[in-house]
Specification:
The protein is α/β, with parallel strands linked by helices. It folds into 2 domains: 3-268, NADP-dependent oxidoreductase domain (TIM Barrel); 297-360, no CATH class. Helix content is 45%, strand content 14%. It is built from 15 helices and 10 strands. The protein has helices spanning 29-41, 56-68, 87-101, 117-125, 128-137, 152-161, 176-188, 203-206, 222-231, 246-257, 264-278, 297-310, 313-324, 341-345, 352-360; strands spanning 3-5, 12-14, 16-19, 46-48, 77-82, 106-114, 141-148, 166-170, 192-196, 238-242. The strands form 2 sheets. An 8-stranded parallel β-barrel has the order 3-4-5-6-7-8-9-10, surrounded by 5 helices. Helix 9 (222-231) packs across helix 10 (246-257) and helix 12 packs across helix 15 (352-360).
């Protein structure tokens, strides 16, 4: 397994991380534990979970004790998160996570799910960063990290505002333009960069014909191509994959085992082909983000991408709610006056007004 240094922490981590969100059957603890042990045996040493991932932390608590027996010779690292901002609630949650996972220390602890700059400012004002620092001083956590869904330019602000040791953010062949500035800023500052949803939340393997452009060799599939595109990027420390079962693990290990550096010309071809592959899908350039009514047009268009590809209203609603913090009754969905500002600015000439109206009616 290829490893990389995690920012300036001095730790070497696997280029593929284990995402503990998507276990196929969390009731079957033994199967989930077996999956984690298999990943560890094949060199994956970064394991990510969160309190909101169902029984995930509990599953980790069943898997980690055996792994701890060989940790000295074969290091591994555990990451979890909190959305809390009140100091007492943060402490309660970190203590619960430690107890469930049967750990004394959490390696990477994330200020979790920052959906906007205002949300970050509110949590910071309540003392979240000072609380994290105190937990670190007490040895309950080792590294202060952050997880965000903010656009690239806000990620740049975030990285410059506080010395987070690493960042977790969504990044794939589907949306790399949207977060490119943030990835670059984090890398330039020497922070660890962990990308989630490297397969577009499962949409890339579900639509191999649309995303065939990520393949650089005849003998690879779109899963391998999409992962190798990210692995080849020296700015990215870890590509975090949500494993469901051993079949997913085998697919990802295949991508790693067959990895060879990709020629610069091929990387440029992949980037250039995004427009063609997306056709009438938004490529996330953000030029439309000038709505006089304050509608976050790029966020709505990102959600519409998922709706278009999946043909699922639930996929659209889940993307808006969990990725962007926009609820079905949010006034912003009814605020469009059809002034046309966004469409005038759109370099793809997409029917944005029509799509916003469609989103508001789902």
């Amino acid at each position: 397994m290829l490893t990389r240094p995690y920012g300036s922490t001095g730790l070497d981590v696997s280029a593929i991380g284990f995402g503990g969100m998507r276990f196929r059957d969390q009731v079957n603890i033994d199967a989930c534990v077996e999956l984690m042990h298999a990943a560890y045996a094949h060199g994956i040493n970064y394991f990510d979970t969160a309190p909101g991932y169902g029984k995930s932390e509990e599953i980790f608590g069943h898997a980690l004790p055996d792994m701890l027996k060989s940790r000295t010779e074969k290091p591994f690292y555990v990451s979890t998160k909190t959305t809390q901002s009140d100091p007492s609630e943060i402490r309660r949650e970190v203590e619960t996570s430690l107890k469930l996972m049967r750990l004394e220390t959490i390696d990477f602890y994330h200020v979790w799910c920052l959906l906007s700059w205002d949300m970050y400012e509110r949590r910071k004002a309540k003392g979240v960063l000072q609380t994290f620092e105190k937990l670190r001083d007490e040895g309950l956590i080792n590294h202060i990290t952050v997880s965000t869904h903010m656009p690239g330019n806000d990620v740049v602000r975030l990285m410059n505002d506080y010395a987070f040791e690493g960042i977790l953010l969504g990044y794939s062949a589907m949306n790399f333009k949207y977060r490119e500035p943030g990835i670059q800023a984090a890398a330039d500052l020497g922070r660890g960069v962990v990308v989630m949803n490297p397969l577009g939340g499962g949409l890339i393997p579900q639509h191999p014909e649309r995303f065939g452009f990520v393949r650089t060799r005849e003998d690879e599939n779109v899963i391998e191509g999409a992962l190798r595109f990210l692995i080849d990027d020296p700015r990215i420390t870890i590509s975090l994959v949500g494993f469901r079962d051993v079949h997913d693990l085998k697919d990802v290990l295949s991508a790693m085992e067959g990895y060879e550096p990709i020629a610069a010309s091929e990387i440029e071809r992949i980037r250039d082909n995004v427009k063609e592959a997306f056709d009438q899908l938004c490529t996330g350039c953000q030029y439309c983000d000038e709505c006089p009514e304050g509608i976050p047009v790029p966020k709505l268009m990102d959600a519409y991408n998922h709706y278009h590809l999946s043909n699922s209203k639930k996929e659209l609603q889940d993307r808006l709610k969990w990725h962007w913090g926009i609820m079905p009754d949010d006034p912003v969905l009814q605020a469009c006056t059809a002034c046309g500002t966004c469409e005038d600015l759109c370099t793809q000439h997409l029917p944005i007004i029509e799509r916003i109206q469609e989103i508001s009616q789902t």
